[in-house]
Amino acid sequence: MRSIRPALAAASLAVALVLTATACESGDKKADAKPTNSAAQEGDQAGGEGGAELPEDLDAIADRLKEHGIDVDKWKDGEWKNWDKDKWLREAKDFANPVIEDLWSPERMKSAKDPSQTISAKAASGSEGVTDPEPRPVRAQKERTPYHNYAAPVGKIFFDTPEGTAVCSGTVVKDPRNPGKSNLVWTAGHCVHQGKKGGWYRNIVFTPAYNDKGKSPAQMQNAQPQEVAPYGNFWADWVSTSGEWIDGTTATDPEGGSYEYDYAVMHVKPEKGGKSLEETVGAALPVDFSSPAPKSVDAMGAWGYPQAEPFNGVLMHKCVDRPGRLSLTSSAPTMYRIGCTMTAGSSGGGWFREISNGKLALVSNTSIGPAGSAGWLAGPQLGDGAKRVFDTMSEKYGNK
């Protein structure tokens, strides 16, 4: 373990890769949300064969909104703030996220802070199946700056919820059908959809290498736009997550969250136009869908932007630990769990492991942590269901 941890950290730096952890956070109240997925409503390992019809054209946003009585121009002028049940789209085929240019100004990004803890482990206390002893806390370490040199694929995700602006973390991942030109971002399902009790979140953007130079909150007050978002903002024009997350089919808590399937893939485009996300950032990570047994992995690393206290949301952190197992219910796959003190805001952040020659691959994402404290993080295993969601995104929208 001692020899593996430094190697994992070094590999992430050398290739400008990232590891992630912890949940979302909202600037108003609680954006904890268990988000839903869009594209293919297909599950992970324990089933999830349902298939949602996918639109053929990413430019059909206006038509999809009109079908629900929503005018795109009015939407951009503020109608998106209407979260009435009949206006809050939740089905996979109804995802819509029209670009509202300059909505996510540096000032608005700053307002998505000091959120409530958005992840909890209420269900873990009565878990069935196989659960390993709780890991010892691993203190989160600050990533070196500038982030684009050491963790270029990692970034922050900003979005709007009924409770206000919220944040998560995400990772640029490779698109095997569009080598070198990926526009895909991996994150948690609860960062894009509220799940069983709600619908798709709105104004979802990915900001790679957010706060590139690692400025403090005070310094960020006078930071230039290129320091806040060195590569600009990338809007999600399509998102896919598991049907289990949307429907809460394995939920063991009152909120209806199927955390074992809490993953999502976003297809993004630059707000101002330009090259693909991977070309712009200069790096991306492959996704490992082999679901390795925890005992076969010496170390996993999680990267993200924790925002709940004692963190501030503007600095990227990381944790590396040997993974264990966490079971929430015997009817669903076990989750990976590592010791880590990152808090809400790191949700959706990627987890990585070495696959060969020091190279890293994304193997999970931060989903939940302990309620009322910070000492560990858990993420879903990525198996056949996750691969189907990913392949659908790549095949249908990858070259858009």
UniProtKB/TrEMBL annotation:
InterPro entries, per database record: Glutamyl_endopeptidase (IPR050966), Peptidase_S1_PA (IPR009003), Peptidase_S1_PA_chymotrypsin (IPR043504)
Keyword terms of this UniProt record: Hydrolase, Signal
Q: Where in this protein does the record put region Disordered?
A: 26-54, 108-139
- Gene3D superfamilies found in the cross-reference section: Trypsin-like serine proteases
- Origin, by domain of life? Bacteria
For this protein, the Enzyme Commission number is 3.4.21.-
Q: Provide any one GO MF term from the record.
A: hydrolase activity
- Signal peptide (residue range): 1-23
Q: What is this protein called?
A: Trypsin-like serine peptidase
Highest lineage ranks of the organism? Bacteria, Bacillati, Actinomycetota, Actinomycetes, Kitasatosporales
